[in-house]
Amino acid sequence: MFSASVLIKVTGQRQLWVKELGIMSTLRRNPVTYGWTIYPDGEFQIPRPACPEEPQISAEECPFCEGKEHTTPPEITAIRRQGSMPNGRGWSVRTIPDINAVLRIEGALKRRGEGIYDLMDGVGAHELIIETPEHHSLFSEYSHQKMHEIVWMYRERMRDLLKDERFRYIQICRNYGLRAGARIPHPHSLAIALPVVPRWVREEIARAAEFWKMKERCLFCDMIALDRKANRVVFENSQFIALAPFASGVPYETWIFPSMHQSQFQDIDDYELDSLAEVLQKTTKALANKLNNPPYNLILHTSPAKMSHQWDSSEKPIAEYYHWHIEIIPRLRELNGFEYGTGLYVNPLLPEAAAAHLREILDKVG
Amino acid sequence: MFSASVLIKVTGQRQLWVKELGIMSTLRRNPVTYGWTIYPDGEFQIPRPACPEEPQISAEECPFCEGKEHTTPPEITAIRRQGSMPNGRGWSVRTIPDINAVLRIEGALKRRGEGIYDLMDGVGAHELIIETPEHHSLFSEYSHQKMHEIVWMYRERMRDLLKDERFRYIQICRNYGLRAGARIPHPHSLAIALPVVPRWVREEIARAAEFWKMKERCLFCDMIALDRKANRVVFENSQFIALAPFASGVPYETWIFPSMHQSQFQDIDDYELDSLAEVLQKTTKALANKLNNPPYNLILHTSPAKMSHQWDSSEKPIAEYYHWHIEIIPRLRELNGFEYGTGLYVNPLLPEAAAAHLREILDKVG
Fold first, then answer.
1. How far, in Å, CA of B319 to CA of B262, rounded?
2. Contacts 24+ apart (CB under 8 A), A68-75
3. Is the pLDDT confidence value at A50 over 90?
4. Is the CB of A207 less than 8 angstroms away from the CB of B346?
5. Is A348 within 8 Å of B198 when comparing Cβ atoms?
6. Chain A to chain B, count of Cβ pairs less than 8 Å apart?
7. Which chain B residues are Cβ-neighbours of A346 within 8 angstroms?
8. Which residues 201-220 on chain B approach chain A with CB closer than 8 angstroms?
9. pLDDT, average across residues B137-151
10. I need a labelling partner for A6 at 20 to 30 A (CA). Which of A174, A216, B131, B310 fits?
């Protein structure tokens, strides 16, 4: 796939840059939910409301465009044309530290308590994966080759960050559109290394463990089989399946699974990467066409860094019962107080209908 | 408090109205999170983005203003001037069924399965509490008397709805501002009776039970004591305390607790109602002044309808370890994909600072 490219890795510079930033955030655990909050060090300003009409950063001002490499922190990794130099032109995907990183790579966690409360220092990594030098590209219009490069970079960052023993979870995600939290329009994804396992993933693992204990089967494999029978499939190829989950919280929520059981994203081989790239391309194209280019989030759920038995009530390794997947969540409207405050969603579109709509679009536009 | 008012209760009409609507929604349970989603029956339309500049329903068109009582479903309960007639003028707080109810009062739950998936019919209640006849009133500017009337109505609706054996949880909540999900600007709260216990409350109960098992103390009582010591208190009177929680997920998140242990909101007496009204008035005033009238959600977390032992691992009744409270969540910005997809929040303001800012404001504006 990368016969015309060569991977150049900049080492040693990342730590330096982050040291200069001098930021140290704190993590606090909510004793009622066991969820963590990151408190970045720095000045708080009341955010402006995000409005679709709000002027966005133009290509001229954009620090992520080709030719502006010197305006960003030094790159960590890039897919580059042979002969091109790090932090210069000639790249197609480029990973840099976030200049406003909420976690930093240096230091120890310093776990501590305040009475019943738990806190630790904000050690981790916060990287931006710039997906293309083109300011105006759309994820939903990427070529198969471009999509392959991006998922390849996801795997590369995950494998690299997992080498650090302090990290419990590597979160790959992507925000598209203002309402989904993307304030810079230049196409990019995030790789965030965390010293804790996020709440939703921990919860999924707990449920999957309970299910395994009862049935000795993977919960997600069962879901895939049922969703296939019930016409909730959006698109499927030899290795991956995109489906509208049975109890999806929002219209057109779509999950992408490896069809065969696989617990860790980083185990994906090159052939599977290509297959995943196709499913991602088809799914995001269908969503963009159906919903007129909606804001959305793309979130990778995979096994924690160490295949820990911490949440395992079944005495089985997580690898047997957890099944990695990508969740794509269109952000068509805000959650209201009822949904935000209860975790109970109101979804006006049944997933069977959502899947049918997206299949229709794919029949038309391919 | 209501010496000049008399409570008129319309009976028998609610069921009739809901029958005419002919809506039957379905609840589906996510097997991975055990969270439920309500699928209302009806046509789906892609929602418009909510933008602060969007034109809102004017007082002329508003169905909730005084004189428009005939345009809403018949009222369930109202606080009225003596001699005034139901569904006419002369009310100060008025509860009606939501014309777009996502749950309906009639029928059986019909719990059923589809393979590993669980679903049931959408039986419940979905009521609007119109807080004032005045279209342009602000929650943050209510008089003490008005706030008392509103919390009195919260208790009244909760006590009434709890008589129905099918309901597991009564959710009282309030959305203010477009970004918090309030599409109709006329001041109103919601009372929603659910056949399931919402995910967040279930989770809080599970954690409080674990804590009780270890310590034989209420987790929330411990939190209150620590937050008082650490200067996270926003306002406190004889019965209630408003504080910025230790691990608040968003800037200026504020929780209101009865200072003495109490597990069910509906047990609140008239004297306590008055004390709660004061804390609500002060807190919302401080938030409005500090944040220039921000969008926010107000969510009541209380014990489930039946003090069930379902989640109790400590063989103690929930009453001993669960502590009801109100969460006020300013919605200053959208959750980004990282937060939405992980349940891990990034909050640029420490709660100690948030509490200090709000105390300063209260010192100035009272």
1. 7
2. A69/A94, A72/A96, A72/A99, A73/A14, A73/A17, A73/A97, A73/A98, A73/A99, A74/A10, A74/A13, A74/A14, A74/A16, A74/A17, A75/A10
3. no
4. no
5. no
6. 289
7. 37-38, 40, 102
8. 201, 203-204, 207-208, 211, 219-220
9. 95
10. A174
